[in-house]
Design brief:
By secondary structure, this protein is an all-alpha fold. It contains four helices and no strands. Helices cover 49% and strands 0% of the residues.
Length: 91
Amino acid sequence: MLGCAEGKWRRRFLADRLEGLVDEPRPRGPRRITDEQIEQVVVATLERAPADATHWSRAWMAAESGLSRSTVGRIWKTFGTASPPCSPHGT
């Protein structure tokens, strides 16, 4: 017996052949973060250091930018701009 997902894909293939196997776009809401906000995070990460620290943490950048820590982390990952981690040996 086929599962629900298997049956769905089989029906789509039978109806539309290979074109039926292309995944349909998923609905999502409009972006809540602007390109300008992303740019501000990237520029601040690369060009400024927070007061009393050598580099940004996600929490500090989130507080500075008004975005969530998760959003800051995704921006850093996307642009490869994550602040360097602290050395465990203080070097």
